[in-house]
Amino acid sequence: MEQTIADIWQELLKIDQVGIHDNFFELGGHSLLALQVLAHLRSRFPIEFSAASLFERPTVHLLSAMILAEQKEDPSFQDSSRRGQKRKERKLHRMMQAQGKE
Length: 102
Known about the structure:
The chain is mainly α and about 100 residues long. Helix content is about 65%, strand content about 0%.
């Protein structure tokens, strides 16, 4: 998880290496990049990230700890993710039926 977060930061900050205790904003991050980081995190981890998440937890380690804590609080997050995927599949199926493609 920490490596995934570090990879996102390295890509967006255009730097070679990020330590788990490096501060995002001290590495050159700013509010617009923070929003991009959060968008990447939302796509990779099935938890809710607020706009303040990175400002409150500006290191890879702190973000990772937050994600782990969220996952432990909600043991059904994987089930929820699967249910969401099934909803998408049903919606796609209905759309295809409506268009006469099935």
